[in-house]
Prior knowledge:
InterPro entries: Glyco_trans_1. The protein is an alpha/beta fold. The chain has helices spanning 10-22, 44-47, 63-71, 76-84, 86-104, 115-125, 140-143, 167-175, 221-236, 253-263, 277-286, 301-308, 321-324, 337-348, 354-368, 371-381; strands spanning 3-4, 27-30, 32-33, 51-54, 109-113, 132-137, 161-164, 184-185, 206-212, 241-247, 269-273, 289-292, 313-316, 330-332. The protein folds into two domains: 3-191 and 371-381, Glycogen Phosphorylase B (Rossmann fold), CATH 3.40.50.2000; 206-368, Rossmann fold.
Amino acid sequence: MNSFPELSETFIRDHILSALNVSESVYVGAKTIKSNTQALEGYHDIISKVKIFEIGTFYELTKFKALLSLINPFNFYDFLLLKFNKKDFKKKILNKRFKKLVENNQIENIHFHFGDVAREFLKVIGPIQNVKIHVTFHGYDIRHLSQYPQFYTPIIQHVDTPIAISTWNFKALLSAGFNSEKIKRINNPIDDKFFSTINVKEKQSLIKILAVGRLEKVKGFDNLLRSVSLLLTLLKEKEVEIQLTIIGEGAERQNLEMLIMELGIQNVVSLTGSKNRFEIKEMYNQSDFLVISSLHEALPTVMLEAMSMGLPIVSTSVGSIPYELPDDNILCSRNEPSEMVQGLEQMIFLKSSWDAIGKSNRQYILKEYGRDVFETILGLLY
């Protein structure tokens, strides 16, 4: 993976926890290792059982190694690479050190998260004898395939198991040239025991709407804010009050704050910044339904977590969402803000059905995305 741990990539953390239950030992490699304690809050005892290494250190070049190249004629070619083509030298170092790691620790399976990471890596190391290569493709790593359909051609032969997390992903991998018989549909796991309703919520007059995601343009939060502004006008006549909470941090914060002031909805909308999983769970539990306003998505984990918590969903119809969202929830066009207004209003006036929709969503998660289901599949894969 690119970096570990990431607050927004809970599916990787959950995969690691499941892998510990079906494997004798688990190694976690990332291009960058972060000291992000918030992302692993509550998991440190379990994660301590994992051996973590930073792939970036495999590229390290030292003056001592350069000196060895000078005095050892067998290393002269390496010296030329170091002096005139550092990129190829780094690749050679990576290949040698990584394969040594695999051999010394008798690793039998390598599972990449994100296709672009696998592509960068496998182009260097190629196949490894007696080691199975699995790659889970998520969202951003396949979104560009319509423009660059041959992006993964260099590594197709090296991947034993291309993994699609949704129907949309499956179709994208087919278009990229992967063999349909090799592609496996494996849903990202949801910690359904953790993300379960704490207590029955009391019905309140104030409608609490929740959105969770990075504050980036692709999440469409500006459209959501404009929709909420229009919705307030409609609801004023019906004496219905709403509150929108957006959890997340990112480059668009200042622009969103300015838009909130411009629309005059600062008393209705709050940007909370990043939250840990305990805080997010509590916000799920306090909210009436989740809204997703993304312009592009594969399959948002926050949607699955909210469904596991028994929340109804209002979402734009993008990526795999229309394939995975049960019928009683509400889909809107990403290009029609008026549809988002209608979708939010419709969900608000489905108040008497919230519990039934939420229970149905919870049952769907247990059947398709539960941890036990994932671990059974993972055990067969490895």
